Amino acid sequence: MKIGMNLLLWTGHVTEDHVPVLKAIKAAGFDGVEVPVFDPSDPRHFAKLGAILDDIGLQRTAVALIPDEAHSPISPDAAARQGGVDHLTRVIDCCEAMGSEGLVGPWYQPLGVFSGAGPTAAELERCAEVHRKVAPLARDAGMFCALEPLNRFECYLLNTCEQSSAYLDQLGEDHFGILYDTFHANIEEKDVIAALRTAWQKGHVNHVHISENDRGTPGKGHAQIHESIRELKAVGYDGWLTIEAFGKALPELAAATRVWRDFFPDPEEVYVEGFKYITQCWDN
């Protein structure tokens, strides 16, 4: 397995200014980082960032989302769905320029937008239609794709591993999988480990976020992180275990993730103690 650090703890747009943070993450023992690709307007920026990460010795995955309803894969408006195709195409171009191994995240609907009901068959098929259009681009770029089921307070299309597995069966793209996140599973799954095991047995889990129940330092809350890592090791998982934590450094992101108070004294605790905790869980 490989241990990664999601850079959303610091920023939604990584630049040369973050080199000291990147070097500190590398020094702490991490194999790589997860880079937000929220502004896919300039692939050249991400090519430069990829060169910086190469120099530091950090591998990388990328995380993306759907910015708004004008780019929504589930919209009944064909223009909005095309907007989703165009947005994800630009994201994939940036990921390829950066040399990303995979594209992960909830890039199936805009976050915080609700219909007042659960997902419909029409919404799921519209989403699959958009994903099928961009799937060849990701495959040609050599990237795996991992869709992240989120808790019901952030989205409604995909909340559980079971829902996500059913969607992947409907989608029919073998390089798509589930991003299993210990924070969201802690909220949505009746049995966290059973959900993980079933999704793995279906061949669907291809990325993992290690995230505490309060979004703080892994190991300092009650999410079933140790149990999840133990299960992943037992079944032979050899992919990424990427820490995802959120603070108040980015007001817009803090508001979106409902971060109203400090969950840790500083980011260094998150990545230093988090790395130690993951390795301890894996080794024991």
Explained architecture:
With 284 residues, this protein is α/β, with parallel strands linked by helices. The chain has a single domain (2-283), classed as Alpha-Beta Barrel (TIM Barrel), CATH 3.20.20.150. Helices cover 44% and strands 14% of the residues. The chain has ten helices and eight strands. The protein has helices spanning 19-27, 43-56, 78-98, 121-140, 161-171, 182-188, 192-201, 225-235, 251-256, 267-283, and strands spanning 2-6, 32-36, 59-63, 102-105, 144-147, 176-181, 205-210, 240-243. The protein has an eight-stranded parallel beta barrel with strand order 1-2-3-4-5-6-7-8, surrounded by eight helices. β2 (32-36), α2 (43-56) and β3 form a beta-alpha-beta unit. α2 (43-56) packs parallel to α3 and α3 runs parallel beside α4. The protein starts with a strand and ends with a helix. The mean pLDDT is 96.
